[in-house]
Amino acid sequence: LVAPSLPTDPPEAPELIVNVRTLSVTDSSVSEIATCISRNANPLPTISWYKDGVHLPAPTEQNNDLYVVSRTVKEASGLHSVSSALYLRPVKADKDSRFSCQVQYLMPQGRKERARSELFNLTLHYYTEHVNFSLERPSVIKEGDDVRLRCQGDVNPPPEYVFTKKQVTQSPECAGTRP
After folding, report:
1. Quick one: 159 exposed, middle or buried, by C-beta within 10 A (0-12, 13-18, 19+)?
2. pLDDT at 96 > cutoff 90
3. Quick one: pLDDT at residue 64?
4. Which of 63, 118, 141, 159 yields a CA-CA distance of 20 to 30 A from 78?
């Protein structure tokens, strides 16, 4: 008996499960960033990761910077489901990066097809490197004028800045003493 062959079926659209925690750039180890799942395909699809539209060449060996962990399941239907978890040690430059996964699969006549997930960002906690302190109205200031100061830093989460005015009481100055 020869087992019937399965038809070539494209997978379902990629399912993306994103880590919504705030990740610290000061951590010395990787964090799970997201998991991409491709279900019900024949033949077996592959999953790749992208950062800002550029392929991330993630190894499968565990390390301290970047790697993926992939799993394959053969469903009762005979179709394949694949998942890929992306692990990354984020850096401050990743604060504006947009990540995605892509599923690649073969169709009849060897035609390669692709399906890309939606884009996602990381929520990062990072330290201040640059601080800017300025006067909002840099014109001439006279006694009694309202003054607004602005302090900005490239930090996340943004800190709360509090400015206080210290009242100084001046004691009368004596020009000299009389006996």
Report:
1. exposed
2. yes
3. 93
4. 118
Distance CA 97, CA 110 (A): 34
Grade residue 165 by pLDDT with cuts at 50, 70 and 90.
low
Residues 6+ apart with CB under 8 A from 30: 63, 64, 65, 66, 67, 87, 88, 89
pTM of this prediction? 0.75
- On whether the CB atoms of residues 131 and 153 are closer than 8 A, the answer is yes
Asked whether residue 137 carries a pLDDT value surpassing 80, the answer given is no
Instruction: Give the distance between the most distant pair of CA atoms in the chain.
Output: 127
User: Which amino acid is present at 99?
Assistant: F
Residues 6+ apart with CB under 8 A from 100: 16, 49, 50, 116, 117, 118, 119, 120
Give the start-to-end residue ranges of the domains of the chain.
Answer: 15-125
| CATH homologous superfamily for the domain 15-125 | Immunoglobulins (2.60.40.10)
- In the block, which residue shows the tokens 């602005």? 150
Decide if 105 contacts 41 (C-beta within 8 A): yes
